[in-house]
Known about the structure:
The chain is mainly beta. β21 (210-218) and β22 (222-228) form a beta hairpin. The N and C termini lie close together (12 Å).
Amino acid sequence: xxxxxxxxxxxxxxxxxxxxxxxxxxxxxxxxxxxxxxxxxxxxxxxxxxxxxxxxxxxxxxxxxxxxxxxxxxxxxxxxxxxxxxxxxxxxxxxxxxxxxxxxxxxxxxxxxxxxxxxxxxxxxxxxxxxxxxxxxxxxxxxxxxxxxxxxxxxxxxxxxxxxxxxxxxxxxxxxxxxxxxxxxxxxxxxxxxxxxxxxxxxxxxxxxxxxxxxxxxxxxxxxxxxxxxxxxxxxxxxxxxxxxxxxxxxxxxxxxxxxxxxxxxxxxxxxxxxxxxxxxxxxxxxxxxxxxxxxxxxxxxxxxxxxxxxxxxxxxxxxxxxxxxxxxxxxxxxxxxxxxxxxxxxxxxxxxxxxxxxxxxxxxxxxxxxxxxxxxxxxxxxxxxxxxxxxxxxxxxxxxxxxxxxxxxxxxxxxxxxxxxxxxxxxxxxxxxxxxxxxxxxxxxxxxxxxxxxxxxxxxxxxxxxxxxxxxxxxxxxxxxxxxxxxxxxxxxxxxxxxxxxx
Length: 504
């Protein structure tokens, strides 16, 4: 019987834990670890490199100071101190010491007096940095203990802050970074009780143009939204509504994305604009994380109460990053392509927190380092282990058995991809029997091949080569694993050869 050939695209639509194995589209992936889905290929993620070392204990916070002109600055909170980590190398002396914890929330703010960043942690007097020096310039108010302030937000030219374990927010005067604050109680508005977890600013279309509204998120899963500019004047400040949402995950549960804000909740990662118009039970319909909802739900149940969950936008690499802490020292990341929405998972980088310096991304580690993210081809010299299992395909013939003979993964790479492959049949997901070797040698399934080389534009070379496989089934899925510290391969297509109803 004559052989049949077929080609499949790579899983550019990303990781999928929602669909059943039998219904999953061919351009999705059952597993996509350390592969980043692009519009026309999936590529092994970039590496990470040591930026600053030598701090004691975990780096729990990275603080970005963003001036109006010139380069920004980056600070790390560890060992109850704050360090300037803007320049690479061994850490210098702390710039601020004697704090009770390292878990700060912060916000940047510009006034006629300059550009500032305010820091709050719920235990220490809030800090203020002006670009050159640190201070504890007072925030005062009737009945307010300033050290209890645990979050901050800039809204309509006012600095807002909130007390820990409280439904009271406090706001300063216009363009003020310190001084007398006025209480704004929400105890009579939050019907579920709890406390204010975080605050954000959402730009919505009010029907008469764009309107920046204040969003208060409570620990019990309510979004309280106010419109206006001056909370002291009812004519210019009004309640928009109180909306049920999933309970927020941690203080760092919110990230601004364009005009919208993205929330990390027990119901998934959701845009505020999408969930306010529907019942909470329907929020998965608009959740960014819907395609990986099973993985997200499991993570929330298993370790959603561990400090370090954080969303952050990384425009330069078109990534929306969600840091998922599994323990005090282990984490992984759910990554979304901001152009396509396709998700994947990154492992091997145990980040506790993320922060930006200019256009670059960094993360703090449990062992006192600041690491540059998305840099190089290794994790500080260690190999990156990339593992992908594409969705099963019937090859347009769901009722026919197929005897698979050959498979040809095609890569674009700046070096030998050193790929190991395995064929899975009829929704039987096999555990790999080995890992790719560091140096290419010829061997069988789950070995490493010397790939044929051809010219592929200017970005790299194309690596391709037929590999013998043996298996019979109605559907098949290819698993590809790559261990690399020197190359960054992209998977661009796969060719299959099989016989319909043929003998093995």
